[in-house]
Amino acid sequence: MASSISSSHDEETPDIESTKSVVSSITDHIHQLISSPSSWNSLKSASTSRLSNIVQQNQEKHFDFSEHSVISNLYWGIEAIDSAMQAQEVEEKRTNGLKKAESMLQVPALLEEDGVTAGIHNQYLICCSYFFLSVVKKLQNDEWQVALHFFQAVMVSPRLVRVEFAPRVCEELFHESCNDEDVRRMARRQLLSWRNDPLETYCNKLVQYEKVHPFDSQSCEIEEVEDCQPQKLDVKKDTFRKDKSTRSLQEVLMESESDTETTSVSSCCNYHVEEGGDHPEETINEGSMRYIKGSEDNQFSLVNPCEYKSLPLLVNEEKPKITSGRIVCSVGHRDRKTDSLLSCYAEDDHHGRITMEDLRRGMMGKNEKDKKKTHKKKKKNLLTGRDFSSQLAMHNNEQGSETELVLLLEKAISRLCFSEEEEDYDYAIQVTTIYEMLSKKRGVKYNMLKNVILDQLLVAISTSKEERVIRASVSILSTIVLVNNSAVEEIKRKGLSLYNLATALKQKVHEAAILIYLINPSPTEIKTLELLPALVEVVCTCSKPMLTTTMRSCQLVLTPPAASLMIMEVLVTAFDCDTNNMHLEAINSPQVLGRLVEVAKMGSFDEHVVSLARILVKCMQFGGDCRRYISESVPLDAFACLLQRKEKRAKLSALEFFQEILCIPRSSATSLLQGKNKGIFGSSNLMQILLDCIQEIETDHKLLAASLLLQLDTLEDSSNKSMFTEEALKVILNGLSNEQSSTSQQLAAFILANIGGTYAWNGEPYTSAWLVKKGGLTSLTHRNLVKNFNQLDQTLQDIGIDPWCAKITKRVVDMGKPVFQALATGLRSKIKRVRLNSLTAISWIGCEIGKYPNSIRYSACEILLSGLEQFLHPGMELEHRFLACMCIYNYASGKGMQKLINFSEGVRESLRRLSSVTWMAEELHRVADYYLPNRSRISCVHTQVLEAKHSRSGAVTALIYYKGLLFSGYSDGSIKVWEIKDQTASLAFEMKEHRKAVTCFSLLEHGESLLSGSADKTIRVWQMVQRKLECIEVISVNESIRKLETYGHMVFAITHSHGIKVFDSSRTANDICKSKKVKTMTTSIQGKIYLGCKDASIQEFSITSNREREIKAPVKNWMMQSKPINSIVVYKDWLYTAGSLVEGSKVKEWRTNCRPQVSMVAEKGKSVVAMEVVEDFIYLNCSSSTSSLQIWLRGTQQKVGRISAGSKITSLLCANDIVLCGTEKGLIKGWIPL
């Protein structure tokens, strides 16, 4: 039976026997509690159910997340104890469970007693926490801490402990007559009495009775001081207990580098507790940070770290209410994270303490004069970085005095927290060295010390307004993070604000880029910070790799420019196309691109060329100017070196870079490959490296390596077969034949299609356009049916394409049948893009196939011919029909012509329809008829393949193809642009610059421009600029425009009054045919313009000689004078007119008083409003049925069908065997003959 605590002897220090009796009584009770399942379950259930009930009663109220977190920590802390008790057989699980429970119970134990959390009084939560912490310590066999936590619970809520938690032991310890205040006072004084007993004496005595934990042989000598004064210790040696959870700061700092972890019992013996206002010192609480305020001059005393008194990181003189006087710091580690600041000994013989004003000046730097004095005084005593590093190294390597090591660490932390010196270099060394040493240790207290350093730096970054302070803090924190990767997660947990780092970066604290990169925020977070201008500035302003002082001291690789590049990579690659392009616009300037190119030349950036490569790839994809500048100035060796790296990402990025940079006009690409003849890029070793990449890389990037290898080897001009070419082509052909992988097949087809051709400066493939030009597609109308085809583009004038094509064709053809078999597989692919790219590859090979033996050409013809037929039919784009016709002509020449007898009637019909486009189609059709004479059967069935609607703009009044896009003019003055893909029309863009209806379109060969005439009395000249239509000129006319035609640089316009005006290149207007009222007109390639007049006459005007003549006289019958010629068309060498009659003759045979060779009456008594003529058909829109088209055979003049548009037809166009109608309801429909 333990003796009770006597109130009459509160001031006396109890002897060892009485102390042991009290501790034993408490531990016995806790032992009985946890040994009895029923008692434990009853207490646990009562506590947890009470928590649940109180929360449920207040569930309608809204609490902060932090309040719920406190309740959850208490609840699950109790549950963790129960789980640990049930894991008796698994020691590790039991130990971890107790540690988890202890850390969770510490959260509610740190609450202020006079508050309320989630509707529960804090006193109840705190008392529960301390009591269950005593249970944890009992399970950990730490009887001393059991007693300490028990008395803490009693001081907070005596009644709760006496009634619910431990009634029996309270009866033993306290008299029954004592009220709660008496019990609280007794418990407090019991703790004070233990504090007053010297630590060494008590511990030695306690060991004599019961040795729970082993002790080291060292001892601790503590000076006797007055109770009212803080202690200043001369630490010589200490006594440690091996309990990780109770080690003090003094123990952590004095612990040696040995593997034995030791802990002092001083943490649980030396308390400094005041009662009310009786003591001259006050305990001031603020959250989890506490400090001792002395009675004299607002001074902060330097006290013994073993007393668990801590200075705040930021001084605050507000005094919260003092309640029970409990010793908060005994709870564990959460209040100890600032204890290292207590070790800041200012070794001054006169003062021995740091004042509050010193702290203010040290942390905030407000008084410049005092700063200089403090700086001068501290500089004498605090260690420099080099001195500290050398002394620390000595202690690590030699068995020096541990006390001296403690002082070194203390002074280093003091230097970090309070010094005002400008030498960031020394700070970085000190902090990094300390942090590295602490990182090698395990235990909560070591983590606490690291947290002190991190907290101090984070506070400076987030609160300081001085650039020097922010720069130094960011620099030091960057160094710590680079050296200790685990610090990143700790910084994230502490909630370092990305906004603060972004602000620092924008204030030219470039080291902040390193922290932002290492914290690894999400792309969305990076975008929100709007960092790109600051990142660009970091890269552009450094004349060489920017190594901060901390980085130089640690010899680190990552630099602010390198980190900036990696963040920039995220901004230009991680988002959708529009967002990426928005970011790329900030980079797309000569200054920035020039700096990026300079970065590539810096050897120290080798580790980060990967990010640079990806950025440059995106820049090249963004615009042709970027691609041109980069290709002309970037050093290829820097990126070729990436191919030698072991990292897969480095190799892939390098291959993507070379693929993109070679997507330029062929002569420039060849010069780029040939001009870099120094370094690794110009060596044969590079081809071996690429060969190794082909064999090592499993992804589709091996195709990129094969493409680069093939181009490099082609430049060698070797007449013999090359191993590199053979391996490269095998990879490409295997990819093309691999129908199981669509991505591989598409990439292989793209590479093969353009490796023998060229690109535009914007990176678009121009091989098809070059082949179309090479094949002789000269008509302005036909050229504008081809997308992205500009006859005036200098890329198509490149004289280097043909020699390159010849070289690469030789390499390909030397492979033999496997090449053509792979291409035939590509023609049969289900993927349209693969089929079209295969067609392009066959086309450029076919341009050179005639130079090789007939056996090779005949073999290729047999393999490829059947697959080429599919591209000839109407419905396919004109360039593909043209290329297919060119391929058949090239491969079937000679002996292969006999294969034409196998052509179906449909193929022959398609060739006949193409004869107006290219002479090759006409020749093939003639040869096919020669080998197998057969009267062609014309299919008159028309199938609708296209429909586009935009009803809000009124009637479709004009249609034309320009740059491969369908342009439509509307009655409200708008122009809409449609992209036709797979017989589907999608609106690409629209504009509205005409004020009234757009009445007509025409193509101007000079400048490859588009003309639009309008009822607003203007003619606008348009050009396509970066896939956008821009008006470059406006021609004003006195009248509204009915119809436009052009020849060369001249523009012909029919006005509202039926006059005709001619505008020359200077836009001077002249009138012609003044005596005639002109209704319609058309031009011919012979330089003549034919005019259909209201009196049914036809006038011929020679543009070159400026002469006019009448080729058809007016109608003399008075009944026919009201029937003007409404439409006139030139097709091949025939001229067709339409009014009340449809008449046609060869142009040369039109003479005055000569009868036409063709004459048709569409409908008796009715006139033709509009007409279009193609190879097989004449389409008529008559006044009797304005919503339909009549189909007539051109050869036999027979009416064979009708097409209904659904509403009145207001415009008509035939292009690429498709007949298009625009209606008054804004609908566009298209049909093709099958």
TrEMBL record:
<dbReference type="InterPro" id="IPR015943">
    <property type="entry name" value="WD40/YVTN_repeat-like_dom_sf"/>
</dbReference>
<dbReference type="Pfam" id="PF23654">
    <property type="entry name" value="ARM_LIN_2nd"/>
</dbReference>
<feature type="domain" description="Putative E3 ubiquitin-protein ligase LIN N-terminal">
    <location>
        <begin position="19"/>
        <end position="175"/>
    </location>
</feature>
<dbReference type="InterPro" id="IPR036322">
    <property type="entry name" value="WD40_repeat_dom_sf"/>
</dbReference>
<dbReference type="InterPro" id="IPR056514">
    <property type="entry name" value="ARM_LIN_2nd"/>
</dbReference>
<dbReference type="Pfam" id="PF23628">
    <property type="entry name" value="ARM_LIN_C"/>
</dbReference>
<feature type="repeat" description="WD">
    <location>
        <begin position="965"/>
        <end position="988"/>
    </location>
</feature>
<dbReference type="Pfam" id="PF00400">
    <property type="entry name" value="WD40"/>
</dbReference>
<keyword id="KW-0853">WD repeat</keyword>
<dbReference type="Pfam" id="PF23568">
    <property type="entry name" value="ARM_LIN"/>
</dbReference>
<dbReference type="InterPro" id="IPR016024">
    <property type="entry name" value="ARM-type_fold"/>
</dbReference>
<feature type="domain" description="Putative E3 ubiquitin-protein ligase LIN ARM repeats">
    <location>
        <begin position="407"/>
        <end position="569"/>
    </location>
</feature>
<feature type="domain" description="Putative E3 ubiquitin-protein ligase LIN ARM-like">
    <location>
        <begin position="571"/>
        <end position="927"/>
    </location>
</feature>
<dbReference type="InterPro" id="IPR019775">
    <property type="entry name" value="WD40_repeat_CS"/>
</dbReference>
<dbReference type="InterPro" id="IPR056512">
    <property type="entry name" value="LIN_N"/>
</dbReference>
<feature type="region of interest" description="Disordered">
    <location>
        <begin position="1"/>
        <end position="22"/>
    </location>
</feature>
<dbReference type="InterPro" id="IPR011989">
    <property type="entry name" value="ARM-like"/>
</dbReference>
<keyword id="KW-0677">Repeat</keyword>
<protein>
    <recommendedName>
        <fullName>E3 ubiquitin-protein ligase LIN-1</fullName>
    </recommendedName>
</protein>
<feature type="repeat" description="WD">
    <location>
        <begin position="991"/>
        <end position="1024"/>
    </location>
</feature>
<dbReference type="InterPro" id="IPR001680">
    <property type="entry name" value="WD40_rpt"/>
</dbReference>
<dbReference type="InterPro" id="IPR055566">
    <property type="entry name" value="ARM_LIN"/>
</dbReference>
